[in-house]
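Schema walk-through. Below, the input block comes first and the output block second. Nothing else is stored per chain. Lengths vary across the set, and this one has 166 residues.
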Amino acid sequence: MTHRITMPIRPENRWLYPIDWPQLSQAIRFDRAGARCERCARPHRRFVAHLGDGRWWDGDAACWRSARGRRVAVRDRFELGSVRTTYVVLACAHLDHDPGHNMPANLAALCQRCHMLHDAAEHRWQRWWNVFRLCALRDLYEDPRLTHARSARRPVSARGEGAALA
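--- output ---
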């Protein structure tokens, strides 16, 4: 069975990946993982009904599953309107966030939800780093008169200190 290979890799990061990345990714996602997420067992390229808290309906097994892929009984009531559907697409994730470390033990086939949860701390750090870099560039290249004028316009807090720059 052939699968269409899509790689959402930014062009500036493409050089970090090995030349055989498409084949390596396919081997992890389909040969090893059997076209299912290795964390929650959601199937690749299928619409999945879920409750938004990680629990999802496994149509093949006709049961609800937890965010870890285990069978669960849904005892609490929920409205049918709260059930959402998601189209699942597997990606091959680097568990240590290093695209140069491509040993099979460091790679996992993850659905969008599990991949985002896995990368959450890395994304928070990246957001902080981007803001830090922009502030540093502004400090280096901005005219000091503009900086002084912006500082003078800052609202004063209850303690009399200037608010942090946005």
